[in-house]
Each structure stands twice: as structure tokens, then as C-alpha cells.
Design a protein that fits this description.
CATH architecture: Orthogonal Bundle
Number of strands: 4
Strand order of the largest sheet: 1-2
GO molecular function, one term: unfolded protein binding
Distance between the termini: 60 Å
Strand content: 5-15%
Pfam families: Prefoldin
Shape: rod-shaped
CATH topology: Helix Hairpins
Radius of gyration: 28 Å
Protein name: Prefoldin subunit 5
Number of domains: 1
GO biological process, one term: RNA polymerase II core complex assembly
Number of helices: 3
CATH class: Mainly Alpha
Largest sheet: 2 strands, antiparallel
Order of helices and strands: HHEEEEH
Keywords: Chaperone, Coiled coil
Oligomer: single chain
């Protein structure tokens, strides 16, 4: 059982023992990972905004809007006139081509839960991003120390020559 516990431990590497080339490669890998994380976060922020916008739209519905004329989007830039006939039945796109019919309160609850879920994912990924940024900063610090040491060594060699 002790061997499985040891296998789950992350391997620790002393950055000072790595060559400058290895450190630069690690730095590049962390920069790529952080860039991917930032793209993922931006996607999640956009998704959260869509869900929040849908929930906000549902919050604005008024019972007296029954039979009210509205513009129904056919594309992002083309609309047709329509009328609200049923204020308590909404069709919600739940992804991958599936739609669910819900009443007003059920629809609000759905979007509330989606916003909360996406926010939880954002928080998890932000923690990972912070950790990766700390690692990157540590690598950059060691690179700078090694470069400084190399410059000092070259200066000493030039002075002794």
C-alpha cells in the first residue's frame, strides 16, 4: 500500500539543477498551458454571460405581455414579427441539438443552475491558472539567476584574461 501512496505523489524537480535550455523549454510549455487556460476561461465567461442573459430575459417577462407582438430572430440579423401566445411554456436549447420545454419558473431555475455550474468551473480553472503562473514565475526567476551567473562568469573570465 505504501508503494501506491508514493506513486500518487507528484514528482518534485529542483529547478536549479536543470540546464538553461531545459528551463527555457519548461517556461515555453507553461506559457502554452496558461494561454490554453486563458482561452478556456474566456469561453466559460462567454457561456456564463449567455446563460445569465437568458435568465435576465426571463426575469423581465410580465403576465400582461400575453398576445404582445415581438420580433422573433431567424438569424442573428433577420427577424420576423410574432406574438406571445403562451407565457408559461419555453423551449430551451440544452446543447447538442436537444431542446427541453419548461415553464417560466423551471426555465429560470435551469439558467440559474447553469450560471452557478459554469461559475464553479471558472473558479476551479482560475485556481489552476494561478498555480501554473506561480510555477512559471519560479522558472523565470531561476532562468534569470542562471543568466546572471553566466554573465558574471564571463566577466570574471574576461578580467582574468
Amino acid at each position: 500500500m505504501a508503494s501506491s501512496e508514493g506513486a500518487n505523489k507528484p514528482e518534485q524537480i529542483n529547478l536549479a539543477n536543470l540546464s538553461l535550455e531545459q528551463l527555457v523549454q519548461i517556461k515555453q510549455e507553461f506559457e502554452q498551458e496558461i494561454s490554453g487556460i486563458q482561452e478556456s476561461l474566456q469561453t466559460l465567461y462567454n457561456c456564463k454571460a449567455k446563460y445569465a442573459s437568458s435568465k435576465e430575459a426571463l426575469e423581465s417577462f410580465q403576465p400582461e405581455w400575453n398576445d404582445r407582438q415581438v420580433l422573433v430572430p431567424l438569424t442573428s440579423s433577420m427577424y420576423v414579427p410574432g406574438r406571445i401566445k403562451d407565457m408559461d411554456n419555453f423551449v430551451i436549447d440544452v446543447g447538442t441539438g436537444y431542446y427541453v420545454e419548461k415553464n417560466l419558473e423551471g426555465s429560470k431555475d435551469y439558467f440559474k443552475r447553469r450560471v452557478e455550474f459554469v461559475q464553479e468551473q471558472i473558479e476551479k480553472i482560475e485556481k489552476i491558472q494561478i498555480q501554473k503562473s506561480r510555477f512559471l514565475n519560479a522558472v523565470i526567476g531561476v532562468i534569470e539567476l542562471k543568466q546572471l551567473a553566466a554573465v558574471k562568469q564571463m566577466q570574471q573570465q574576461q578580467q582574468s584574461a
